[in-house]
Amino acid sequence: MPGIPEWSAEAHIALMGKLNIKRSILSITSPGTHLKAGDFELARQVTKETNDEMAETHRRFPDRFSFFASLPLPDVGGSRQEIDRVRDMEGFCGFALMTNAQGHYLGDELYGPVFEKLNERPTVVFIHPTKCCSIDHPTADKPLPQYPTPMIEYFFDTTRAVVNLLLTQTVTRYTNLTFLVSHCGATLPPLVERVAAFSTILLKGNTKHSSADLKELLKTRFYFDLAGFPFPDLIHGYLRMGDASRLVYGSDYPYTPGAVVESLGKVMDQNVMELFTEDTMASIYSGNAKQLFGS
């Protein structure tokens, strides 16, 4: 992206007023809070400061903002400490994790102790994409560098992370976790059958997954937000994989500018009205989120 956009709670609340949004959940987006590969001390400091800032925003506007806390992954020890530090803060409602941290994707065995700590309580894990990295190239692997990373690479990285969570048994092992995936499932919907077929080769015994198994996990352990451009096409692929009861609104603001958020909201309204009943629309815009977050 060309740079970090300006943000203020007041401007955010003004946009919420235009869109009839009662409450927003704040989070730190890509690249997360581990900004310099290998500098765990800096990552812990940045993570603490950003989490504290979001908590302070909630304290200033308790009826308008909650937040997903960040973790300094791939720093396992620092992440476990931060989980204990923030999960009882007022306004906390889950953790925002990048799809990968320096090439370690969600589901990596390195993260076992972190997921064990997360799993100690019912917890929402919000998955947001970041640039593709590998362990051998922990800063970036960027094919087609002439295009902005979020255009297509974010969708691919989301799919990598979710597939890895499923095939490493992370989803089935940590039953207290509910996952929230950005961008209506990204490129996952057309790949479910393919992933299931390969799982019969990659996995052994009762760990193999049919496409029905994967779809059941996606319908019961995952929610999906509608940020980005899910309409008019992507939503139909999602509905082959999931259902409307797991959809929630998302905006990508402020990286998606306020005027564009408003425009996309109109497109969303039109398409949602064409696809769903009034009751289902109400669930997508508020009811499903209340079910997910318990309020």
Strand content: 5-15%
Which sequence of SSEs, written as H and E, runs from N to C? HEHEHEEEHEHHEHHEHEHH
> What is the global morphology?
globular
Helical content class:
40-55%
Structural class: alpha/beta
Low-confidence stretches: none
Termini separation (Å)? Answer: 34 Å
The number of helical segments is: 11
Describe the structure.
The model has no long low-confidence stretch (mean pLDDT 95). The protein is globular, with a radius of gyration of 18 Å. It contains eleven helices and nine strands. The strands form two sheets. Strands 1-2-3-6-7-8-9 form a seven-stranded parallel β-sheet, sandwiched between helices. It has a two-stranded antiparallel sheet with strand order 4-5. Helix 2 runs parallel beside helix 3, helix 3 runs parallel beside helix 4 and helix 7 crosses helix 8. The protein is of the alpha/beta class and 295 residues long. Helix content is 46%, strand content 13%. The two termini are 34 Å apart. A hairpin with a 2-residue loop joins strand 4 and strand 5. This is 6-methylsalicylate decarboxylase. Its EC number is 4.1.1.52. One of its GO terms (biological process) is secondary metabolic process. One of its GO terms (cellular component) is cytosol. Belongs to the metallo-dependent hydrolases superfamily. ACMSD family.
